[in-house]
Amino acid sequence: PAPPFSRVFAELDPAPAPVPEGRVGLPALSEREVHVSGSAELSARPDRARVSLRLSSRKEAAAAARSSVSRRLQYIAHIARLRAVPEENMTVTEDFSRVENTYQMEAEVCIIFSDFGKMQDVCNLLIEKLGTSVTVSPPHFYHTPEATDTLRRQVCVTAVGNTRRKAQEVCRLFGQALGKPLLIKEEETKEWGGHIDSHLSHSADSQTLQERIQNATAYASCRVFAVFEIKGKENRRNKLL
């Protein structure tokens, strides 16, 4: 999207009149402000990936069907432990049914990865060792709520920083010094792209890993409006000292 329109308004009032002799107190400063709007846009790659593995076996004997799937489940768990995948990041669901004169055992293993390199190692090894006896789905990339909140905070803070730097440049142009902020207002925020934590993936199976990560990348923009106090010119002699 096109960057939002930025506006700058500076107000430099004449210096206040001196306090008449005999009066006690400081002269009241007239309002001297700079009004500035600024924006920022940031992106965040997904921080999680979910991979689903499906196993099935159909045998005439129930025990044989269960045993066939059980052995593969144990091997998958073994590989996950070797790659330091936390147990809480792996869930297993099983379904046992009778189909005509046979028994069918099905299982699905869902593994959540925060390290995408580790994810590739595990998937490649399982495909190599288990072959067609396991079906590995393409990874589904998404953002955790914590990652999304971090992106929102960072883009707001960055927009405020850009706005302050713009105000400093305006004051410097007029030979003034930027003072304290009087008002900081978040005017507009936008978010687009990225996938939330969902089992549904809208990506095509033909996409590469990097294309999937790019499609799941989240973007956020923020525009803020700020009012800063304008100080008088700095004493050059004091500045040099």
Automatic annotation (TrEMBL):
One Pfam family linked to the record: SIMPL
Keyword Translocase in record: no
Entry-linked InterPro entries: IRAK1BP1, SIMPL/DUF541
Cellular localisation: Cytoplasm; Nucleus
A GO biological process held by the record: positive regulation of canonical NF-kappaB signal transduction
Alphabetically ordered keywords of this record: Cytoplasm, Nucleus
Single GO cellular component term: cytoplasm
Family of the protein in this entry: Belongs to the IRAK1BP1 family.
Name of the protein this chain belongs to: IKBP1 protein
Organism per entry: Sylvia borin (Garden warbler)
Taxonomic lineage from the root: Eukaryota, Metazoa, Chordata, Craniata, Vertebrata
